[in-house]
Amino acid sequence: MSIGNLPEDGNSPEDDRLSIGRALQQARISAGLTVDEVSSSTRVRTPIVRGIEQDDFSRCGGDVYARGHIRVLARAVGLDPEPLIAQFDAEHGGRPAPTAPAPLFEAERIRPDPRRPNWTAAMVAAIVAVVGFVGFTLVRGGDGDGSTVADDPASPKPSASAPTNSAAPSKPATPNKPDPSDSAIAGVPADKVTVKLTAEGGQSWISAQDHNGRLLEEGVLREGDSKTFSDSRRIDLVLGNAGAIKLFVNGKEVKNVGTSGAVQRLSYTKGDPEAG
User: Fold this and answer.
1) Considering the domain boundaries, does residue 175 fall inside one?
2) How far is CA 28 from CA 2, 32, 44, 53, 81, in A?
3) Is residue 65 included in any domain, yes or no?
4) For residue 66, which of 36, 34, 95 has the smallest C-alpha distance?
5) How many domains does the chain have?
6) How many DSSP H helices and E strands does the chain contain?
7) Are 193 and 231 in contact (CB under 8 A)?
8) Domain of 223?
């Protein structure tokens, strides 16, 4: 009694087909190619080609690379690679299920920076405002200049017949000034003799002594300079250029002291000046 449709010898059709390596080897030999020639044309190393022809796929580096080598070698020797790939998958656990693609993440949108204030527009607006204000001011100013003010009928007008006072106001009478010599004498102490020398017409050598003969001053009195001497009783003077000296004794000017270049010896006491 037979079981199923198995042949009498008990072998299935799959047992009669060639292995992957055997099929590639026979096809290479039928094509008249050597292992080195196949390796050179496919760029698959010679040890790997020999291992695949012996159904040793350990040198391929994995099932994925093994499938690639089988496809390349089958095309090089003139075979259809798809049946050989299917046979390899059947013998080695089938083709691995494709992995689901990784979810695509939406790129985070770059938030735009907050808009900066538009300074250009602000400046233009400010300039327009200033120009408008200036123009308005000029227009108002022009209108004000062209307007006329009517005379107020209620305001009084000066009468043409009103008399005018042409007389100038009288100046107050100025008091009589005292004689300079009198005021000068009044300002000098009465209990002393005071002598003042001023060089006005040039410089002069001078000498001044008190009543005890003590020398008060001796030297050149330059033009524009003044010297004042006082004593309780008497002042003795020597003037080298009497015409250049302006002399005041007890606040009163002494006239005609001497001529230019003349040497004068003078003595003065308290009260009115008296030449000694």
Assistant:
1) no
2) 41, 6, 14, 10, 14
3) yes
4) 95
5) 2
6) 8, 8
7) yes
8) 183-269
In a domain, 100, yes or no: no
Q: At what angle do helices 81-91 and 20-30 cross, to 10 degrees?
A: 160
- Report the C-alpha dihedral over residues 56, 59, 63, 65, rounded to 10 degrees: -130
Is this structure's pTM higher than 0.85?
no
| 71 secondary structure, DSSP code | H
Which domain-ending residue is among 91, 113, 135?
91
Domain membership of residue 246 (yes or no) is yes
Q: Which residues in the chain come in under a pLDDT of 70?
A: 1-16, 94-117, 141-188, 274-276
> What are the Cα distances from residue 10, in Å, to 4, 7, 19?
11, 5, 19
CB 42 within 8 A of CB 56: no
Q: Which tokens go with 127?
A: 């300039």
> Where does a domain end: 91, 114, 145?
91
SS3 230: strand
Q: Torsion angle, CA of 16/22/27/30, rounded to 10 degrees? A: -90
